[in-house]
Amino acid sequence: MLTPRYWFAHDFSQFYEYFLTQPHCVKNFRKGELLWKPAQAHGKIHYIVSGVEMHYADHESGRRKIISFHGEGTIFPAYSLNDYKIELSLVTEALTDMQVLEFTRPQFKAMFESDSALREQVINWYSMYVNRFLFETIHQGYNSSLVKISNMLYLLSSNQAETIEMTQNELAEILGLSRVQLTRGLAALRERKIITTQRGRISVIDMPALASLCSSETL
Would the pTM of this model clear 0.70, i.e. be above it? Predict the structure, then answer.
């Protein structure tokens, strides 16, 4: 069963050697650099060799909505034939120094059409991405702040490690919560000895207890 994911990594690691044999260029991005210009469609596809990027939207209200994180061994944006208007309002920023293999759409199209395993994995990746949005649309809007925070920490711990390298601002922006709501929720989890927090880091120390606070669709 697919579980919702906010952090994508190693989804295409098995194709790395194959990608190296295909037409591409190697690009490096510095921490804080945008991977393409604002208000620009996603014309290139990146296989992330190292580093992490953050995908988000800056709303006209001034609030930011973080959509997903993408790390080593995955592709972003995923391959498609079309440009979508929503892409013009989305931003992808390097959270760390990054190195990527960059493909044009025609280059990736040639691989997609000739390699059935790659084609299958692209479809699987889209399934994971859509599953994440369905989860948020259907369930997160009805959950309390504490349940939303518990769901997020559980999913991040399941997909990464028990120590989550993420700031409280980033968590609030993913969940659409205020800092006050997030701070109260994290304080409640600390009081129950479910998590510990340090600057830019949250460690889950009691996964069963955290799971008991999650909504059923997360588990």
Answer: yes
